[in-house]
Amino acid sequence: MPGTIVLTGANGGLGTAMVSRILATPSFRSCHGVYTVRNTSRPTPALDGILQRGTLPSQSTPGAHSYDKLSLDLSSLASAWELASNINERVATGQLPPIRAIILNAACEEFQKQT
């Protein structure tokens, strides 16, 4: 059943492995991917390479994979709200298929002193 898969932290080691698995599995590959990274203006060569290879049809994985790469900075609550609002609006208006899976892989590290 086609839908949308949202994956946070898509440019790290585990995130890129999950994207590779999504692209290698026909039932997941047919879903639209929403892959978040901390900042889309910075290079993400590992993720971009996997997506570039994976969006081309092949004999073992037919059909192109559609996706968006969006910014999500978990150190900013405003960034999280903005992304959630964007995705909700796009699903509600039919620009994105219904969400079928959310994989919360991203992490945020606080460097403030705890008391």
Structure commentary:
The protein has 115 residues and is of the alpha/beta class. 37% of the residues lie in helices and 19% in strands. It has helices at residues 13-24, 26-29, 45-54, 77-92, and strands at residues 4-8, 32-37, 67-71, 99-104. It has a four-stranded parallel sheet, sandwiched between helices. Strand 2 (32-37), helix 3 and strand 3 form a beta-alpha-beta unit. Helix 1 packs parallel to helix 3. It is globular and about 50 Å long. The termini are far apart.
Question: How is this structure best summarized?
Answer:
This protein is of the alpha/beta class and 115 residues long. Helix content is 37%, strand content 19%. Helix 3 links the parallel strand 2 and strand 3.
Structure characteristics:
115 residues; alpha/beta; four-stranded parallel sheet; 4 strands
Write the layout of secondary structure elements.
Blueprint: E1 4-8, H1 13-24, H2 26-29, E2 32-37, H3 45-54, E3 67-71, H4 77-92, E4 99-104
Parallel strand pairs: 1-2, 1-4, 2-3
Helix pairs in contact: 1-3
Average of the residue pLDDT scores = 88
Number of strands: 4
Shape: globular
**Strand-pairing-aware structural class:** alpha/beta
Q: What strand order characterises the main sheet?
A: 3-2-1-4
Q: Residue ranges: pLDDT <50 for 5 or more in a row?
A: none
